[in-house]
Amino acid sequence: xxxxxxxxxxxxxxxxxxxxxxxxxxxxxxxxxxxxxxxxxxxxxxxxxxxxxxxxxxxxxxxxxxxxxxxxxxxxxxxxxxxxxxxxxxxxxxxxxxxxxxxxxxxxxxxxxxxxxxxxxxxxxxxxxxxxxxxxxxxxxxxxxxxxxxxxxxxxxxxxxxxxxxxxxxxxxxxxxxxxxxxxxxxxxxxxxxxxxxxxxxxxxxxxxxxxxxxxx
Length: 217
Hints:
This protein is an all-alpha fold. The protein has eight helices and no strands. The chain has one domain (2-196). 77% of the residues lie in helices and 0% in strands. The radius of gyration is 21 Å and the shape is globular. The termini are far apart. Residues 203-208 have low confidence and may be disordered.
């Protein structure tokens, strides 16, 4: 009975992981910042649910820190959604302060995580922390490129933490669905730029048509 219950939680985690992949892929096809953060926020809810179900299946002690990190991501995305949806001077000022607070939280959590991993693979997690900070800042930056460039770097860093080298030294974080989610981000960015390159190329400068001289009419 206990095994059946564990398998049910595990299967539910995979379903939530697939839904997360759909939202992750869709979000990087969106140019509008507020809509992007809304898709990210909803996707993060399913992402958090996936880790909760994994915890119920295999033990909550191994997933507690990841659930906290996923909850942090959900809150960050939904707050940024409202900031960009309002798009006022006051909301932008709040956004900068909130971004700084999120960076402090990420640094504290990152340094704690780094201190807990085997020394041989600590450099991987330092790289991951740097990539995560770049992504958080890149999300808030204007334009369509910063968030997509930094998410690819971040996704590659996360995949690296699931590498055989990392597992070899006893840091068992193998999560196939987690890897697929990161691959979906990279694939979505590639698809976005393929679509972007096929769009109509607008000139950098637009020159007004010369006006006819009335005296020569």
